[in-house]
Protein backbone atom coordinates (compact mmCIF):
# COMPACT_ATOMS: atom_id res chain seq x y z
CA UNK A 1 0.00 0.00 0.00
CA UNK A 2 2.80 2.47 0.88
CA UNK A 3 4.73 1.58 -2.29
CA UNK A 4 1.66 2.19 -4.47
CA UNK A 5 1.04 5.56 -2.80
CA UNK A 6 4.73 6.55 -3.28
CA UNK A 7 4.71 5.51 -6.94
CA UNK A 8 1.46 7.39 -7.52
CA UNK A 9 2.80 10.53 -5.79
CA UNK A 10 6.03 10.45 -7.81
CA UNK A 11 4.09 9.92 -11.07
CA UNK A 12 1.80 12.88 -10.34
CA UNK A 13 4.79 15.07 -9.44
CA UNK A 14 6.62 14.18 -12.65
CA UNK A 15 3.50 14.84 -14.74
CA UNK A 16 3.05 18.22 -13.07
CA UNK A 17 6.68 19.16 -13.77
CA UNK A 18 6.35 18.12 -17.40
CA UNK A 19 3.20 20.19 -17.86
CA UNK A 20 4.75 23.20 -16.15
CA UNK A 21 7.79 23.07 -18.42
CA UNK A 22 5.65 22.76 -21.55
CA UNK A 23 3.07 25.30 -20.56
CA UNK A 24 5.33 28.29 -20.12
CA UNK A 25 7.49 30.05 -22.64
CA UNK A 26 9.43 32.23 -20.23
CA UNK A 27 13.19 31.62 -20.32
CA UNK A 28 13.33 30.67 -16.64
CA UNK A 29 10.73 27.93 -17.13
CA UNK A 30 12.40 26.48 -20.24
CA UNK A 31 15.58 25.46 -18.46
CA UNK A 32 19.19 26.04 -19.38
CA UNK A 33 19.41 23.15 -21.86
CA UNK A 34 16.96 24.81 -24.26
CA UNK A 35 18.47 28.26 -23.82
CA UNK A 36 22.02 27.09 -24.58
CA UNK A 37 21.16 24.73 -27.43
CA UNK A 38 23.60 25.14 -30.33
CA UNK A 39 22.44 27.28 -33.18
CA UNK A 40 22.58 26.05 -36.75
CA UNK A 41 25.34 27.07 -39.11
CA UNK A 42 22.74 29.03 -41.08
CA UNK A 43 21.78 31.02 -37.95
CA UNK A 44 25.43 31.78 -37.21
CA UNK A 45 26.12 32.81 -40.81
CA UNK A 46 23.11 35.15 -40.85
CA UNK A 47 24.33 36.75 -37.62
CA UNK A 48 27.80 37.21 -39.11
CA UNK A 49 26.19 38.85 -42.16
CA UNK A 50 24.27 41.26 -39.93
CA UNK A 51 27.51 42.31 -38.24
CA UNK A 52 29.82 42.27 -41.28
CA UNK A 53 28.23 43.93 -44.30
CA UNK A 54 30.58 42.26 -46.80
CA UNK A 55 29.39 38.76 -45.79
CA UNK A 56 26.75 36.86 -47.75
CA UNK A 57 25.38 33.34 -47.27
CA UNK A 58 26.31 31.25 -50.32
CA UNK A 59 25.24 27.70 -49.45
CA UNK A 60 23.58 25.62 -46.76
CA UNK A 61 24.94 22.09 -47.08
CA UNK A 62 23.07 18.82 -46.83
CA UNK A 63 24.46 15.36 -46.10
CA UNK A 64 24.27 14.67 -49.84
CA UNK A 65 26.37 17.64 -51.02
CA UNK A 66 28.78 18.19 -48.12
CA UNK A 67 32.24 18.15 -49.74
CA UNK A 68 33.85 16.80 -46.56
CA UNK A 69 31.27 14.03 -46.00
CA UNK A 70 31.04 14.99 -42.31
CA UNK A 71 27.51 16.40 -42.09
CA UNK A 72 25.42 14.24 -39.77
CA UNK A 73 28.04 11.51 -39.70
CA UNK A 74 29.92 10.14 -36.66
CA UNK A 75 32.36 12.73 -35.26
CA UNK A 76 31.09 15.23 -37.85
CA UNK A 77 29.17 18.47 -37.72
CA UNK A 78 25.41 18.87 -37.39
CA UNK A 79 25.19 21.76 -39.87
CA UNK A 80 27.47 23.60 -42.31
CA UNK A 81 27.32 26.69 -44.52
CA UNK A 82 29.56 28.55 -46.90
CA UNK A 83 29.67 32.33 -47.08
CA UNK A 84 31.28 34.82 -49.39
CA UNK A 85 33.07 38.03 -48.46
CA UNK A 86 33.14 40.73 -51.14
CA UNK A 87 36.56 41.92 -49.93
CA UNK A 88 38.19 38.77 -51.35
CA UNK A 89 39.65 39.68 -54.73
CA UNK A 90 38.07 37.70 -57.58
CA UNK A 91 41.48 37.12 -59.16
CA UNK A 92 42.63 35.28 -56.01
CA UNK A 93 39.79 32.75 -56.23
CA UNK A 94 39.16 32.67 -59.99
CA UNK A 95 39.35 28.88 -60.35
CA UNK A 96 37.63 27.92 -57.12
CA UNK A 97 34.00 26.89 -56.63
CA UNK A 98 31.43 29.43 -55.48
CA UNK A 99 31.32 27.78 -52.05
CA UNK A 100 35.09 27.50 -51.47
CA UNK A 101 36.29 28.65 -48.04
CA UNK A 102 38.78 30.92 -49.81
CA UNK A 103 35.90 33.04 -51.18
CA UNK A 104 34.86 34.04 -47.66
CA UNK A 105 34.53 31.20 -45.26
CA UNK A 106 32.46 28.48 -43.70
CA UNK A 107 30.54 27.81 -40.50
CA UNK A 108 30.47 24.32 -39.02
CA UNK A 109 28.39 23.48 -35.94
CA UNK A 110 29.21 20.35 -33.95
CA UNK A 111 27.32 18.52 -31.21
CA UNK A 112 29.85 19.83 -28.68
CA UNK A 113 32.93 22.00 -28.30
CA UNK A 114 35.28 18.99 -28.30
CA UNK A 115 34.17 18.06 -31.82
CA UNK A 116 34.65 21.61 -33.09
CA UNK A 117 38.08 21.84 -31.45
CA UNK A 118 39.18 18.51 -32.94
CA UNK A 119 38.15 19.71 -36.41
CA UNK A 120 39.97 23.02 -35.96
CA UNK A 121 43.11 21.22 -34.76
CA UNK A 122 42.99 18.89 -37.79
CA UNK A 123 42.58 21.79 -40.25
CA UNK A 124 45.43 23.72 -38.64
CA UNK A 125 47.74 20.70 -38.67
CA UNK A 126 47.15 20.26 -42.41
CA UNK A 127 47.69 23.98 -43.02
CA UNK A 128 50.97 23.90 -41.09
CA UNK A 129 52.41 21.58 -43.75
CA UNK A 130 50.58 23.20 -46.69
CA UNK A 131 50.55 26.98 -46.21
CA UNK A 132 48.62 27.43 -49.48
CA UNK A 133 45.55 25.95 -47.77
CA UNK A 134 45.86 28.01 -44.59
CA UNK A 135 42.91 29.87 -43.13
CA UNK A 136 41.81 31.73 -40.02
CA UNK A 137 39.82 29.56 -37.61
CA UNK A 138 37.65 30.84 -34.75
CA UNK A 139 35.97 28.66 -32.16
CA UNK A 140 33.11 29.43 -29.80
CA UNK A 141 31.61 26.44 -28.06
CA UNK A 142 30.44 23.96 -30.70
CA UNK A 143 30.78 26.55 -33.52
CA UNK A 144 33.81 26.68 -35.81
CA UNK A 145 34.08 29.66 -38.17
CA UNK A 146 36.63 29.17 -40.94
CA UNK A 147 37.74 32.37 -42.71
CA UNK A 148 39.58 32.86 -46.01
CA UNK A 149 43.32 33.39 -45.94
CA UNK A 150 42.81 36.05 -48.62
CA UNK A 151 41.38 38.45 -46.05
CA UNK A 152 43.80 40.57 -44.06
CA UNK A 153 44.35 39.70 -40.40
CA UNK A 154 42.28 42.74 -39.37
CA UNK A 155 39.43 41.76 -41.69
CA UNK A 156 39.50 38.19 -40.38
CA UNK A 157 39.40 39.42 -36.79
CA UNK A 158 36.05 41.01 -37.58
CA UNK A 159 34.69 37.46 -37.80
CA UNK A 160 36.17 36.58 -34.43
CA UNK A 161 34.60 39.68 -32.88
CA UNK A 162 31.23 38.99 -34.54
CA UNK A 163 31.28 35.38 -33.35
CA UNK A 164 32.08 36.36 -29.78
CA UNK A 165 29.90 39.48 -29.71
Protein described:
- It is a single chain.
- With 165 residues, the chain is an alpha+beta fold.
- It has helices spanning 2-23, 27-30, 32-35, 41-51, 113-129, 153-164; strands spanning 55-60, 79-85, 104-109, 135-140, 143-148.
- The chain has a five-stranded antiparallel β-sheet with strand order 1-2-3-5-4, sandwiched between helices.
- A hairpin with a 2-residue loop joins strand 4 and strand 5.
- The protein is globular and about 35 Å long.
- The model is unreliable at 1-37 (pLDDT under 50).
Taking all residues together, what is the mean pLDDT? 82
Biggest β-sheet strands, sense, barrel = 5 strands, antiparallel
Largest beta sheet: what is the strand line-up? 1-2-3-5-4
Assembly status: single chain
Give the proportion of residues in helices: 40-55%
Distance between the termini: 58 Å
Q: What are the main properties of this structure?
A:
165 residues; 42% helix; alpha+beta; 5-stranded antiparallel sheet; disordered N terminus; 5 strands
Short characterization:
The chain is α+β, with helices and mostly antiparallel strands and 165 residues long.
Topology summary:
Blueprint (H helix, E strand, L loop, with lengths): L1 H22 L3 H4 L1 H4 L5 H11 L3 E6 L18 E7 L18 E6 L3 H17 L5 E6 L2 E6 L4 H12 L1
Antiparallel strand pairs: 1-2, 2-3, 3-5, 4-5
